[in-house]
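Section 5: illustrative case.
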């Protein structure tokens, strides 16, 4: 099965945050408050997926209120922060929506994401992901994390589903 055929079956798109939805930079002010910068085009892609009934999820190892705010703005369906072992969280989301791995796309950029990437139909990463992640992915974005990689995956899935319905 080629990538577009796999993409046409996707119902759930899940994402890491740092290095995927952001460029991986972590900025603190003098009071220790953490800031993140997100890409508007990535955001439009996620919002479009939500609008058309796709389940979207964030599963990230860090805790940050900015992620909650961004997720709310984009109508992200499921948000899990402070997660060290991400696979059980993804499996719980899948169980909740009665999905299997053939219906899931996940984008990650570093070693904590590999356990998920090895199981999902579309294992995606930004262009600047670490090599160990790139080696297990069947979709490597042309864009870096926080620079359009999320949008590229959203467009692939959206267009593939749309094409399969025609």
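Designed sequence:
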């Amino acid at each position: 099965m080629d990538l577009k055929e796999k993409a046409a079956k996707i119902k759930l798109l899940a994402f890491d945050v740092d290095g995927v939805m952001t460029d991986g930079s972590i900025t603190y002010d003098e009071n220790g408050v953490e800031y993140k910068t997100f890409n508007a085009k990535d955001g439009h892609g996620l919002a479009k997926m939500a609008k058309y009934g796709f389940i979207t999820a964030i599963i990230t190892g860090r805790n940050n209120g900015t992620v909650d705010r961004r997720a709310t703005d984009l109508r992200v369906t499921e948000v899990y922060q402070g997660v060290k072992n991400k696979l059980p969280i993804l499996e719980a989301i899948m169980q909740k929506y009665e999905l299997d791995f053939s219906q899931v796309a996940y984008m990650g950029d570093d070693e904590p994401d590999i356990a998920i990437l090895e199981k999902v139909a579309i294992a995606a990463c930004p262009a600047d992901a670490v090599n160990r992640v790139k080696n297990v992915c069947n979709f490597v974005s042309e864009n870096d994390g926080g620079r359009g990689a999320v949008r590229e995956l959203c467009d692939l899935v959206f267009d593939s589903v749309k094409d399969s319905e025609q």
